Amino acid sequence: MADRIEVVHHTVNLFRLLCWGLRPLLPLYPVAVGDVLERGDGTTITILADRVVKKINNFASNNKGVEFDDLANVYSATCHAEGLIHAVEAPTLRKGTYKVALAPLGNTCRPGNEGELRQAIQAVLRGVAALHRAGYVHRDIRWDNVLCIGQGSWILSDLESVARAPARAASKGGFRAACWTSDTLDECGMYTTASDVQLVGRLMDTCSIFVLDAQGEELRAQLTASAASSRPSAEQALRHPWFFAGGAP
């Protein structure tokens, strides 16, 4: 009897270890191939075996402040970029409905420790740098738009908010993300590449379940500096020593 109890005990511990190791790969709620997720504003996400299909009905009214041509261009320009989701089928706009097939698959979850946060921020900055090289800004960088695609691997998703940089802040009824703060736009009211950088810093702010080390706190302060001109570019931020702590790539 004691032997059986010991076997059960070891089995339970093994299960716990497996669940912890696979945690980043598991969805936050059960989904199956073929499931269609409703996201509001006419947006649906259909889950397939190796991709998701995103549709936005009445694109012009439900995605104000975003041009279809910009989406087609940005997915093409960043098709091999690190840190970004990719279109495996080019975006289309037919009869008012926007459609794009995206990969890789992932799930939204926040880092559980500073090491995971370092990996996530590094990946997002790589994606942001690629967007900036292509002449675009993301404008909606928040944890809901960051996907974990495996142990230590993260990407920035939801490129359906991009615009050419710099972008004038939208008037009433136009594009304005809920994650913007009073420091997001520059002194002229423009959304610039420095605005994206500030939102990346906000990711570090809103993942406050642990205390950053001195280098991490230094980077966070640089990214979220009140003056846009005081923030590093995404490329410059990637060279910060915090990313090389503990043998980070």
Description:
The protein has helices at 2-22, 59-62, 68-77, 114-133, 193-205, 214-223, 234-237, and strands at residues 36-40, 43-47, 52-56, 86-94, 97-103, 107-108, 136-137, 146-150, 153-156, 163-164, 167-168, 190-191. It has 249 residues and is α+β, with helices and mostly antiparallel strands. The longest helix is centred in the N-terminal third of the chain and has 21 residues, at 2-22. The radius of gyration is 20 Å and the shape is globular.
Strand-and-helix sequence, N→C? Answer: HEEEHHEEEHEEEEEEHHH
Strand order of the largest sheet: 1-2-3-5-4
Helix content: 25-40%
Distance, first to last CA: 49 Å
Q: Which blocks of ≥5 consecutive residues have pLDDT under 50?
A: 7-29
Task: Please state the overall shape, judged from the principal axes of the Cα atoms.
Answer: globular
What's the count of strands?
A: 12
Mean pLDDT: 87
Number of helices: 7
What portion of residues belong to β-strands?
Answer: 15-25%
Helix and strand content put the structural class at alpha+beta
* Rg calculated over all Cα atoms: 20 Å
Q: Which sheet architecture does the biggest sheet show?
A: 5 strands, antiparallel
**Multimeric status of the protein:** single chain
Short overview:
It contains seven helices and twelve strands. By secondary structure, the protein is an alpha+beta fold. Strands 1-2-3-5-4 form a five-stranded antiparallel sheet, covered by helices on one side. The chain has a three-stranded antiparallel sheet with strand order 6-8-9.
